[in-house]
């Protein structure tokens, strides 16, 4: 069991709130990591396996992600210990929202993460009677439909394109393997295809498909819509692989866009890609990142590569109390501009500083957060 006090370091967390509700069986946690640059903002997830340690790690990622794209919100994350397929989901969600009414939306604004949908965001707003309580609501309620728009995956491909150009690796014709074919993975694969890359492998929790000659993204999407994650076991194109083997196929660019902690040191030794772009949060271990660097494989960190969702969230945050919906074209344009610029800045900082992109990007984010903490007198005097 995680000792919450042991999670505290010089950055945070500022607050950990654990809540429960006897009648519904709801158990959940909110971690507000660092609000020096603005109110806490991060997704709310629902899973039977949620833990305090996991949510704290993800809240810290949000701190660096907001600072990495230089947007003025703070890092936070929330989690509910429940099965999102349960018939009691709405009752549990409403109980969670009520339990955090002291913090939401003054200190934390809820959003979408694993296990929650746009309608769930609408339920949170309804329960607290406040349009500002959550973002990610359906477009017909004025929200920004992140998953339907595919902004996170789009941004992953844009960051990858910028990084590939920096490495003098033309994206046109480049072979790309994508782990995960959900909202992020599919949107990334679609954008890669639009940019001229060849998708040679995709995967779900049920397995992977691999075709060195290229897979048709549109056909894969149709198959997924029909069969769900099982489409990889029923699709006729490509060879079937066991889950995880897509990480080590022969390719130029690897995009882990599924879960955290999927690439350890052993797997890093087997990766054949020249460029790894983190579409998921925390997909590589510190040991894996060391191995990749030693092998000369460039890695674009998660808080840079998959920050398209936070850019879209910033638009949604601005629009919470507005009568107007954000313009989609403005969202995509800003995602492309910010993520391309940040990817290049981090790679150049890594080169000049003789360090890894992950450490260079982290250093940049830390400097921005530290500057805000100094201005607000949140640091201990020396």
Description:
The protein has 382 residues and is α/β, with parallel strands linked by helices. It folds into two domains: 4-64 and 75-146, Leucine Dehydrogenase, chain A, domain 1 (Rossmann fold, 3-Layer(aba) Sandwich), CATH 3.40.50.10860; 150-307, 3-Layer(aba) Sandwich (Rossmann fold). The chain is built from 14 helices and 13 strands. It is globular, with a radius of gyration of 20 Å.
Could you outline the blueprint of secondary structure elements for this entry?
Elements: E1 15-21, E2 26-34, E3 40-41, E4 44-47, H1 52-68, E5 74-81, H2 89-99, E6 108-109, H3 118-128, H4 146-149, H5 151-166, E7 175-179, H6 183-194, E8 198-204, E9 207-210, H7 217-227, H8 231-234, E10 239-241, E11 253-256, H9 265-270, E12 275-277, H10 286-294, E13 298-300, H11 302-305, H12 308-318, H13 328-352, H14 357-375
Parallel strand pairs: 3-5, 3-6, 4-5, 7-8, 7-11, 11-12, 12-13
Antiparallel strand pairs: 1-2, 2-5, 8-9, 9-10
Helix pairs in contact: 1-14, 2-3, 5-6, 5-12, 5-13, 12-13, 13-14
């Amino acid at each position: 069991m995680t000792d919450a006090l042991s999670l505290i370091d010089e950055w945070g967390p500022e607050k950990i709130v654990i809540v429960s509700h006897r009648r519904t069986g709801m158990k959940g946690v909110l971690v507000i990591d660092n609000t020096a640059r603005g109110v806490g903002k991060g997704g709310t997830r629902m899973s039977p396996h949620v833990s305090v340690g996991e949510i704290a790690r993800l809240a810290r990622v949000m701190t660096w992600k907001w600072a990495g794209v230089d947007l003025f919100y703070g890092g936070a994350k929330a989690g509910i210990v429940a099965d999102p397929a349960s018939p009691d989901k709405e009752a549990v969600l409403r109980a969670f929202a009520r339990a955090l009414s002291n913090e939401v939306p003054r200190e934390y604004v809820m959003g979408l993460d694993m296990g929650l949908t746009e309608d769930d965001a609408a339920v949170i707003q309804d329960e607290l009677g406040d349009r500002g309580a959550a973002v990610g609501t359906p477009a017909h309620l004025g929200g920004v439909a992140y998953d339907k728009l595919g902004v996170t995956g789009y941004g992953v491909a844009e960051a990858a394109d910028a990084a590939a150009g920096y490495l003098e690796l033309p994206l046109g014709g480049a072979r790309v393997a994508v782990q995960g074919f959900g909202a992020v993975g599919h949107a990334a694969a679609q954008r890669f295809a639009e940019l001229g890359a060849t998708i040679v492998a995709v995967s779900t929790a049920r397995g992977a498909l691999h075709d060195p000659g290229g897979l048709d993204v549109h056909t894969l999407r149709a198959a997924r819509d029909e069969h769900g994650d099982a489409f990889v076991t029923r699709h006729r194109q490509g060879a079937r692989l066991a889950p995880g083997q897509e990480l080590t196929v022969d390719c130029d660019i690897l995009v882990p866009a599924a879960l955290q902690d999927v690439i350890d040191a052993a797997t890093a030794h087997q990766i054949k890609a020249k460029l790894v772009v983190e579409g998921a949060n925390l997909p590589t271990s510190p040991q894996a990142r060391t191995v990749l660097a030693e092998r000369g494989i460039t890695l674009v960190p998660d808080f840079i590569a998959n920050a398209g969702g936070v850019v879209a969230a910033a638009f949604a945050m601005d629009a919470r109390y507005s009568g107007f919906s954000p313009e989609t074209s403005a969202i995509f344009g800003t995602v492309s501009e910010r993520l391309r610029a940040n990817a290049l800045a981090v790679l150049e900082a890594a080169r000049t500083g003789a360090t890894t992109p992950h450490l260079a990007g982290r250093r940049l984010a830390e400097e921005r957060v530290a500057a805000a903490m100094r201005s607000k007198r949140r640091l201990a005097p020396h």
